[in-house]
């Protein structure tokens, strides 16, 4: 589970930083209107917050904090995975990679939640 928490922290902080500070660098946002870049920045802020929760969870590893982490990230990854998949199906995203990545993290989070708590 520690690896999941560390991987979550790294990925969310990296993705969040990129989307918050430079959403125009995302290939799917090429030629996007400024409103799309604004939405990207908002997702970046959410990802940075999620990454911060992962770092704080890792530093604490208190069972109650870990439980909150797993509950929060189950919801986060399932919902973002669904949204990313629907966006891919609609043609908003050029690759299903984001949806697949969030699905994998959702399954890992669900696994640890159901087997360790």
Describe the structure.
This protein is mainly α and 117 residues long. The protein has four helices and no strands. The longest helix has 28 residues, at 63-90. It is globular, with a radius of gyration of 15 Å.
List keywords for this structure.
117 residues, mainly alpha, 4 helices
| Approximate shape | globular
Q: Roughly how much helix do the residues carry, as a percent range?
A: over 70%
- Pattern of helices and strands: HHHH
Main beta-sheet annotation: none
Strand content: under 5%
Average of per-residue pLDDT values: 96
Specify the number of helices.
4
First and last CA, distance: 12 Å
Short structural description:
By secondary structure, the protein is mostly helical.
Chain-wise SSE layout:
Elements: H1 2-21, H2 34-60, H3 63-90, H4 97-116
Helix pairs in contact: 1-2, 2-3, 3-4
